[in-house]
Amino acid sequence: QGGGAIGGTMTERIYGCHFATNSAKGTYYGGGAVYNSSFIADSTFVGNSVKGGSQWAGAVYSKGSITNCIFDSNSITGNYGENGGGAVYQSAGGSIIKCIFTNNVIVGSASHGGALSIKAEGVTVANCDFYYNKTSSGHKGGAVYCANKMNRRKT
Length: 155
Hints:
By secondary structure, the protein is mostly beta strands. It is about 0% helix and about 50% strand.
């Protein structure tokens, strides 16, 4: 499944942690640092990656909420699936609040959401900043790609 540092079961709550240069590699992997956590707060994610195959989330594959985190220079390379999220892939409802996304990237034939890819309906994104995130040329959402309805405020 993935999670270069933590492969979760949706019961993990992560507070005040620093994740750097973790990786997941192979087909159908997600979360270069964390896969499937219920809550993440006050943490940093720098230089995490996922490589090859049909990939999700250079740093965090989430089904929960993320608050007050920094995502910098996370990446996905070699992606060929309809997936994405250079830093975060949000696959279920939840929220992303007061986060900063800088220099995250996704490169591949179906690359969407340089910083954030949202596949679930009703996800709230509020008070986040996005700087210098990107996708491959011609792909959707240099900063954010949303496949369904999203609630957003001051982003």
